[in-house]
Amino acid sequence: MGARKRISAEQRKETQRTMYFAKLRNVPTSPRKMRLVADMIRGMEAFRALGVLKFSNKEASARVEKLLRSAISNWEQKNERKAESGELYVTSISVDSAAMLKRMRPAPQGRGYRVRKRSNHVTLFVDTKNENQN
Predict the structure, then answer these.
(1) pTM: predicted TM-score of the whole model, two decimal places
(2) Phi, psi of 10 (to 5 degrees)
(3) Hey, which residues does 21 pair with through a beta bridge?
(4) Which one, of 123, 106, 119, 129, lies nearest residue 24 by Cα?
(5) Which of 2, 20, 89, 106 sits in a 20 to 30 Å window from 12, CA-based?
(6) How far apart are CA 109 and CA 76, in angstroms?
(7) Strand partners, 112
């Protein structure tokens, strides 16, 4: 590895140490349905968001709840202390499309319709409010 790549890799690793996030990859739900759930909790306080996700009747909310718990746990692991209520916020959450399974469905008169089974990747960042204001 060249010096320039090594320097940029070290900078990237250094910024990762101060970021608290969790990723959920290849979720077999359409990105559109997952974005509805992501929009519900974006910018919300973390423990309040857990409550919202817990009582949501959307199927994707259970997965996002587990992901949020993981991000909170990552924050606690890196800071070596427990998160208190009102301290952590969902700073950003993004839903990107992932691989698509393409299938055929029988249709009238010998035709076939395409069925696209979509999946997505979710990335969720949590952080304290005072660091976000700087």
Answers:
(1) 0.86
(2) -65, -40
(3) 125
(4) 123
(5) 89
(6) 60
(7) 106
Q: What is the mean pLDDT of the chain?
A: 93
Judge whether 125 and 21 are in contact, CB under 8 Å: yes
**For residues 64 and 122, what is the distance between their CA atoms, to the nearest angstrom?**
8
Q: Does domain 20-133 have CATH number 3.90.470.10?
A: yes
Name the one residue in this structure whose structure tokens are 């970021």. 19
Q: Report d(CA 84, CA 32) in Å as an integer.
A: 32
Q: Where are the domains of the chain?
A: 20-133
Q: What is the pLDDT of residues 84-99, one digit of tens each?
A: 888 999 999 999 999 9
**Residues whose CB falls within 8 Å of the CB of residue 92, separated by 6 or more in sequence, listed in order:** 42, 123, 124, 125
Q: How far apart are CA 61 and CA 52, in angstroms?
A: 9
Structural tokens at position 32: 């559109």
